[in-house]
């Protein structure tokens, strides 16, 4: 542990992943342009949007790097494009930031300051507040129960009264605002694109932790989040990807996976959905189980084996 003379000498690449969310991306961009941290480069990765996002971004910000993936690669795949771009250009840090956020001007400075002070830190996350009601916490650290395939947020929905204002180790860092050191990526690799959506950053954090890096919640870095904006665009996606990826996550990270408990909980959820007549959602859960059992991963429309 020890401070550095000039934390802002570290180059940070801010990766914003956009998929048909141009208005959110523009608002996020403007808040990032007000950051006090000067050694930063914003990069937008567009996951083959159909709302004219790429053209508008290039017109409005001609000097802004906009990377076009060519298809919807999901959270991991799209961000990995940005991560590789950043590392190739000498990034010391990469900050993954959801496009449906706005940031406090000191948000990045605080993340880097703590990262440079806490030498064993590998991945750091912000205090994230609700955009709709900034008095409420969305993320003040996270917990993981790999044996059950469960993750969650500390302080979710609780008023922010300063009770979570200490830098602390955390079970994982949400991909909504995640700062990662270059050396961590070089050691553990990029995120697993087979997840497509959900659990990819949780597994990434666990991989870093197994290599001896600390995961830190950094409350001096404040971000406001518009909850579930991307998920609402994908009918049935949440339950399909959560069902399938939870099972993958357990298989890969739950050394003593409690399968009976998991299956019982999912069966209970199926019965609840059937009672409500939500047959489409039951089909989504069933597809999640089937694709897990048969070893298919990736985007549901373009599944690959393995």
Q: What is the topological layout?
A:
Elements: E1 12-18, H1 22-33, E2 40-46, H2 53-60, E3 66-68, H3 74-88, E4 93-98, E5 101-103, H4 107-117, E6 121-130, E7 137-139, E8 142-145, E9 150-153, E10 168-169, E11 177-181, H5 182-188, H6 200-210, E12 214-225, H7 237-253, H8 259-275, H9 279-293, E13 296-297, E14 304-305
Parallel strand pairs: 1-2, 1-4, 2-3, 6-12
Antiparallel strand pairs: 4-11, 5-12, 6-7, 6-11, 8-9, 10-12, 13-14
Helix pairs in contact: 7-9, 8-9
- Helix and strand succession? EHEHEHEEHEEEEEEHHEHHHEE
What is the percentage of strand-forming residues? 15-25%
Structural class: alpha/beta
**Helical stretch tally:** 9
Under the CATH scheme, which class of the largest domain?
Answer: Alpha Beta
- Total tally of structural domains: 2
CATH topology of the largest domain: Spore Coat Polysaccharide Biosynthesis Protein SpsA, Chain A
Helix content: 25-40%
């Amino acid at each position: 542990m020890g401070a550095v003379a000039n934390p802002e000498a570290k180059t940070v690449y801010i990766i914003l992943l956009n998929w048909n969310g141009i208005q959110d991306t523009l608002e996020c961009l403007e808040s990032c342009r007000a950051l006090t941290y000067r050694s930063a480069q914003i990069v937008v990765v567009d996951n083959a949007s159909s709302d004219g996002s790429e053209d508008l971004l290039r017109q409005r910000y001609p000097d802004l790097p906009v990377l076009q993936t060519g298809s919807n690669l999901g959270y991991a795949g799209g961000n990995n494009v940005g991560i590789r771009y950043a590392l190739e250009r000498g990034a010391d840090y990469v900050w993954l930031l959801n496009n449906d956020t706005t940031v406090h001007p000191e948000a990045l400075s605080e993340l880097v300051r703590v990262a440079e002070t806490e030498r064993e830190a590998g991945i750091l996350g912000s205090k994230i507040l609700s955009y709709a009601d900034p008095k409420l916490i969305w993320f003040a650290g996270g917990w993981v129960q790999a044996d059950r395939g469960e993750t969650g947020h500390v302080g979710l929905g609780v008023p922010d009264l300063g009770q979570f204002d200490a830098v602390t180790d955390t079970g994982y860092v949400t991909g909504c605002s995640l700062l990662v050191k270059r050396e961590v990526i070089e050691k553990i690799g990029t995120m697993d694109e087979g997840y497509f959506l959900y659990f990819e950053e949780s597994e990434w954090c666990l991989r870093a932790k197994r290599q001896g890096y600390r995961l830190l919640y950094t409350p001096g870095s404040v971000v406001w989040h518009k909850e579930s904006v991307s998920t609402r665009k994908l009918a049935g996606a949440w339950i399909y990807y959560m069902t399938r990826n939870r099972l993958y996550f357990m298989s890969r990270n739950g050394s003593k996976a409690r399968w009976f408990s998991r299956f019982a909980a999912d069966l209970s959820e199926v019965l609840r959905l059937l009672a409500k007549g939500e047959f489409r959602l039951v089909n989504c859960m069933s597809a999640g189980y089937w694709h897990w059992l048969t070893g298919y991963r990736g985007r549901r429309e373009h599944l690959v084996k393995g």
